[in-house]
Protein: Carbohydrate ABC transporter permease
Organism: Clostridium sartagoforme
Amino acid sequence: MEKSNKTISTEKLVKIFTYLCLGIFALSILIPLGWAILASFKHKSEFYGNPWALPQGFYLENFKKAFVEANMGEYFINSIIVTGLALIILLVVSIPAAYVLSRFEFKTKKFLNLLFSAGLFINVNYIVVPIFLLVLDGEKYIRRIFELPASMTVFLDSRIVLSIIYAATALPFTIHLLTTFFKSLPKAYEEAAYVDGCSNLKTLIHVIMPMAKPSIITVILFNFLGFWNEYIIALTLLPNKAKTLPLGLINLMQVQKTATDYGALYAGLVIVMIPTMILYILVQKKLTEGMTVGGIKE
């Protein structure tokens, strides 16, 4: 009995310690997040007093300054277009590729798996310069063929090109994750679909993808966060126009620091955070729910 009591008390202490660590971790995220949201409603004169004081009122002029005067609205639309298009391209390419690599046998399968696995260890920030040089060479080649004026850009300042590059850089992680998940799915479901006359494409769309919904949602969330907050590649490939939110936020920081208008600065931060928070709220159940893949009824 004493041993069992000691075991129970030890388990309780472990649970208490675990919950304590999780609570501290949650507070370390929620307190700065809540402070930034409250600060976005403060008048600039309130920042010279107690930084932890609640705002005296909801000063919505900060959001107007950030969204309209600082062009954050235009940057917001650009980010939505770039991120949405990049996710579409990524899913259209990675889901069939992962399905083929997980289900079919062919000569170059091991090499492709090794190639995508190696891509996991490449930091995108280290290959920005080669990417820029490739885009620049393509720009010069197109201008020479079609005799375009030097002032006209084709690949630079292009949201489509930026979306393609985002999708390409995310392929190794996405394909590796989906391939691993697809391998865990029982083949009996596919065999039943083939008996019913489904092609490989129909089987993928109507059988595999619904079963793989949690992993696909996870891929969408992680890549959305990466694309939405990406700065280095966007700064390199969008030098003149069509800037995304991170670039606009840097410009806003420089302007508002000079004007000492920190309320508008925090309003810009909230504008950047809102889509990620909404997306996480919408998909959190899918991220945490379990998935049963087995037990075909006979």
About this structure: Residues 70 and 251 are 8 Å apart (CA to CA). The chain has a mean pLDDT of 84.
